[in-house]
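Dear support,

We are seeing what looks like truncated structure output for some complexes. This example has two components. We would appreciate it if you could run it in full and send us the complete token output so we can diff it against ours.
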Amino acid sequence: MHFVIIGGDAAGMSAASRARRNAPDMRITVLEMTRDVSYSACSMPYVLADEEGDMDALIMRAPAVFREKQNIDLRLGHRVTSIDARAKRVLGEDAQGQAFEIAFDKLLIATGSTANMPLIPGHNLPQVFVLKSLDDGRRVAAFIGDNKVKKAAIIGAGYIGLEMCEALTERGIIVQLIRNAPTLLPWLAPELAGMVEKTLIQKGILINHGCTTERIETKGERLDICCREACFDADMALMAIGVRPNSFLAKEAGLALGASGAIAVNRCLQTSHPDIYAAGDCAESFHVVTGEKTWIPMALTANRAGWAVADHITGRPVRMEGVAGTGVFKIFDVEVARTGLTLKEALRAGFDAVEVVVKSYSRAKTVSGSKPVWVHMVGDKQSGRLLGVSMVGQDNEARRINAAAVALHGRMRVADFSTADLAYAPPFSPVWDPLLVAANQLLKTL
Amino acid sequence: MHFVIIGGDAAGMSAASRARRNAPDMRITVLEMTRDVSYSACSMPYVLADEEGDMDALIMRAPAVFREKQNIDLRLGHRVTSIDARAKRVLGEDAQGQAFEIAFDKLLIATGSTANMPLIPGHNLPQVFVLKSLDDGRRVAAFIGDNKVKKAAIIGAGYIGLEMCEALTERGIIVQLIRNAPTLLPWLAPELAGMVEKTLIQKGILINHGCTTERIETKGERLDICCREACFDADMALMAIGVRPNSFLAKEAGLALGASGAIAVNRCLQTSHPDIYAAGDCAESFHVVTGEKTWIPMALTANRAGWAVADHITGRPVRMEGVAGTGVFKIFDVEVARTGLTLKEALRAGFDAVEVVVKSYSRAKTVSGSKPVWVHMVGDKQSGRLLGVSMVGQDNEARRINAAAVALHGRMRVADFSTADLAYAPPFSPVWDPLLVAANQLLKTL
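Here is the complete output from our reference environment:
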């Protein structure tokens, strides 16, 4: 059996390693177009925050380890240009321009996602960056190091954009945040988003809402980032307006894509061709709340899906229950966490959804260090089910969200969740955990 | 309807307040034998840690508020001495020694628990304390304040004993911890207990294991706390060897007690007499893992049970699903958390239980501040169910335990829990949360 994997990051290398453990004699080939495999992309802002930070420290396992210890034929600089699904082979070109053609018994497409870059005038200037691959990170680090950057523009305010606000501020760089939407984090309730925005402003981030960047111009060695209404000067610009799935290869091979544009897969991660799998950022997954397909590219999902593909091709039972859309990030001393559906998403999915927004506290009021915690909780009037939770706090709140995520996996009703025996001790929580306070409030509306 | 409540702390006052909300015209009488109601007993160590600490700041709501704002007939200094279940009345004595007799339609026994005090020679010396009621706290605070305490002996190493190790150390007092068991926290796996013990030793706590205190003697103004093998000198001694339920009144009234000695109740918190309820530390509850009755006195359980009693007597549906035995505490910079059953408890409950002990990390290795986290996880080979988790860490791990607690409420299998979409961001967790790492390991043994 020859197991070929396109893409050597989270999903791809997890699949390769697990397949090797499951099947010591399997022939495993990984084709990676860059020179990097298996790195922690999510950690790049934290490396960039540190003047001494080393991007290469994010490499979790070196190529040599995969090759020598795990007998995985890992080929770097190998770009697959097409998949012949019928003949079960992939075609491509290596770093030297040599064509290659490789036959497979089972194929995994783990091509990840690509940072969006609008093709506006100036998008290809050398001072304009995205932050997705490790090479992107190296380029940003080198530019900041070489050019005494004093001011940076960040276009977009998703996870990466906001994390980079903190990272660049840590480096003493003034940050101009340029957003096309009229509010920050529009998927959060206003009370929660307000707490984030307040912190950004307190930390000196310049925020311009409602500005759609139309062009980027050079102004000497500097840039002018221009919306219709105004231009903002900066030494560099970071485009952080989300990612899209790398599903082009799959589409060209005639494999089905989902409504999201990512590769459609079943609960065993098979594409529309049973010998071809897809996993990680390029593939869809199922949402545990809606039961429908969704596309929420996350590192844990990719790792887990990689394992599952390896299990399935080695004959183990696999059924992906799906994702809850759990996500968390911090900006300065504020933490934002979410799991499940927002009210808008819940209504769109057909639920009879209701919400509460509750302010609570991180610790008992009797001990020092207690901070406000905002909880937004969404439930279904018809079934009583818990549908989603988001939280904003400042006292290590992020991990609290996991209790709600598990409840979503368990398809719990709000009433059941409200009876959960959550931990209480004064330094960690009020007697009623903020999540329980919210659940008790939400119950009144169900 | 006259609703009479014996005991005015967590369960009693929660029931009184909720009954008032549910039934604006109900006659509600609370009989509290001390002068304090509704205070955060769990916070006493944190007040004692602070030289300026004010015990009275732990009173959550003053008696006048209950009386005036909620029209609750709250009588302090009223000790109930007997319950006539057949005639539906309680008898007792007030602070002036006047007898009283009060008829009830519904009665709640919320008499709490009492700190254990072995009747060894010297147990009643004025330098020997327990820490259970607010008056206990006031006595300890006054003694430390008035007597320039340089060294204290803590007898027992449960939650309170360990929290007091930290509190007294904060006050510059040398702490001698005297334990009868041969190891610290015997319900924890050795790796986890070892991390706690190491911290205590590093912080200068003197620990003597395997010493059963047999007598306490005065030595001038100081004490000698004596085991068979040795005596330990100290300026004061704190007995912290657990609590027992105050179920004597109920027993004398002919109400059934459980095997634990606490008052037996059904899932609506009714005792063996349908018009008499029991809630809080004096009552049993159901364990969500075993389905059996248990006695785990905790603040959240008491608050929740108080609400449930009020709901039941005002005609609302009530069914107590039970407790998971979730508990958490910190000692210096170490946090200990647990939920569900230990291996021993699981085997005793008849499960085909297996365990794993896994060392993991609190954050991604790529960011600073990551600390070791030990996870002990127990599962059932036959059903695959998750039975219990305990954790020890140093980086705000306590709240992680809630994810496992919710899984226990959802009666999840380890396999289901292992697929949970838990939050990942480098400052909060590795890609695989420590709980998921443990679940993946445990799966291999199931």
